[in-house]
């Protein structure tokens, strides 16, 4: 086997590994817990949060009055464009792997190119099925006094919490430790 064939095989395998990890990461749970505070009264902050969540498509599904918890649920929809794009990438990558296999084992004929018919649709379907899921948004009021400032603990998808802090931070005077804007690496 020549050096160029070795490097081509290595790069093709690395592309397949990258696609696998992208598909795995697209369905990974990124639920985060963050504590926020506001100098405004709890009722005003809760009304603002509930209104914002309803506008974004979240539905209130319950809560616990004793523990001061409100629960919202929402459906995450898969991107059809990204599923098709990943299908094409998986198909082309599988065809490339088939071409490398043909170079290594010419006696197989053109059959390894048919890997593209398996890899393409499979990667698109895996992304489409795994990335569509139901998400939960929980908020718990921590402070006991209704007239003072607000302290609450939010548990939701990291991206949703970042959007909340960006869009409602000034309006509701929300403050957190800033950990949402730091990269996890």
UniProtKB/TrEMBL annotation:
Q: Which UniProt keywords apply?
A: Membrane, Transmembrane, Transmembrane helix
Q: Which domain of life is it from?
A: Bacteria
Pfam families referenced in this protein's UniProt entry, alphabetically: CCB1
Tell whether Lyase is among the UniProt keywords: no
Q: Give the transmembrane region(s).
A: 6-23, 81-104, 110-128
- What PANTHER family does the annotation carry? PROTEIN COFACTOR ASSEMBLY OF COMPLEX C SUBUNIT B CCB1, CHLOROPLASTIC, PTHR35302
List the protein's name.
Cofactor assembly of complex C subunit B
Which species is this UniProt entry from? Prochlorococcus marinus (strain MIT 9301)
Q: What taxonomic ancestry is recorded?
A: Bacteria, Bacillati, Cyanobacteriota, Cyanophyceae, Synechococcales
């Amino acid at each position: 086997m020549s050096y160029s064939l070795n490097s081509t095989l290595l790069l093709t395998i690395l592309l397949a590994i990258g696609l696998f990890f992208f598909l795995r990461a697209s369905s990974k749970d990124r639920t985060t817990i963050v504590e926020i505070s506001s100098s405004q009264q709890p009722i005003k902050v809760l009304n603002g949060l509930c209104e914002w969540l309803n506008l974004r498509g979240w539905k209130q599904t319950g809560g616990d009055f004793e523990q001061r918890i409100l629960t919202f649920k929402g459906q995450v929809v898969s991107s059809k464009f990204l599923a098709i794009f990943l299908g094409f990438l998986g198909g082309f990558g599988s065809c490339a792997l088939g071409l490398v296999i043909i170079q290594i084992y010419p006696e197989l004929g053109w059959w390894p190119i048919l890997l593209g018919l398996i890899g393409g649709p499979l990667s698109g379907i895996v992304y489409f099925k795994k990335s569509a899921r139901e998400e939960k948004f929980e908020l718990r009021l921590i402070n006991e006094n209704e007239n003072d400032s607000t302290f609450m603990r939010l548990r939701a998808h990291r991206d949703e919490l970042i959007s909340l802090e960006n869009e409602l931070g000034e309006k509701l005077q929300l403050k957190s430790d800033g950990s949402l804007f730091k990269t996890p690496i």
